[in-house]
Amino acid sequence: MTPDLQLRANGTDISAALRDRLISLELVDAAGITSDRLRIDLDDRDAVLAIPPEGAVLELALGFRETGLTAMGRFSVDRREGSGPPARMSIEAKAADMTAAIRAPKTRAWPAATLGQIASTIAAEAGLTATIAPELAGIAYELVAQTAESDLHLLTRLAAPLDAAVKPASGRLVLVPRGSAALASGETLAPADVAASEMTSYSWAFEERTLYKSATAEWSDVQSAALRKVTAGSGAPEQRLRHPFGSEAEARRAAEAALARAGPTFSPAGSSSPAGCGRN
């Protein structure tokens, strides 16, 4: 298959002009409080490239000509630099949906709220549409305290014990279990087979944590002023979560998530060179 891309700058398709000058394109896809990053290195051999203004919005789609392109998100230009010889221009951009509103510290309380309600309220305040996995939306909390904490950090904190990830992307605030095949649109991505010959490198690992047969978490019983325990699974070895939780339900969810993620890891890497679309 033939790799392909599309890039729009402030709504204008510049893909054709990009292909003749593209040296490399790097996209770092992150989750949580870390912003996605896009870097584009261009050949400026005749010094005619215009320097994009700070804040210019880039919309990137990647894929294959035979199967179509997938939107990778919107990015706001925050760094421009040049070097030579040979003359080149580098453009860096951060995720455009990582707005100041969602990163600003706030202090408030969320009494008797579900994760879906919290995420939907935060998304609306940031001008985003919430896309929340059904199995996460109904999770209930007796009280969630947000003290000098950004909305994104709060959601990341709530998602961590559930082995879930939160991310602003493509005008949406996405909250899904880690490893799920959900796109920012809420659609499910079909599985794809990748042969070893299609990867530049890969690694796999079985860690000691894969041997855990149970996981135990503590929670604070306010009525009796005691720490109580809940356990997911049974048998030894047992994994003990370090920090106590605010309720039995939260502790149980955290223990179940910890036991579920105690498995092997696999990390692939690859690179593509679309025809007429750069050198790397």
Topology of helices and strands:
Layout: E1 3-9, E2 12-13, H1 15-19, E3 22-28, E4 37-43, E5 57-64, E6 68-83, E7 88-95, H2 100-103, E8 105-114, H3 115-125, E9 129-132, H4 134-137, E10 140-150, H5 151-159, E11 164-169, E12 172-177, E13 201-205, E14 214-221, E15 226-233, E16 238-240, H6 248-260, E17 265-269
Parallel strand pairs: 9-12, 14-16
Antiparallel strand pairs: 1-2, 1-5, 3-4, 4-7, 5-6, 6-7, 8-10, 11-12, 13-17, 14-15
Helix pairs in contact: 3-5
Model description:
Residues 256-280 have a biased composition (Low complexity). Residues 232-280 are annotated as: Disordered. Pfam families: Phage_GPD. This is Phage tail protein D. There is one protein chain. The chain is an alpha+beta fold. 16% of the residues lie in helices and 43% in strands. The chain has 6 helices and 17 strands. The strands form 5 sheets. It has a 7-stranded antiparallel sheet with strand order 2-1-5-6-7-4-3. It has a 3-stranded mixed sheet with strand order 9-12-11. It has a 3-stranded mixed sheet with strand order 15-14-16, covered by helices on one side. A hairpin with a 2-residue loop joins strand 11 and strand 12 (172-177). Helix 3 (115-125) packs antiparallel against helix 5. The radius of gyration is 22 Å and the shape is globular.
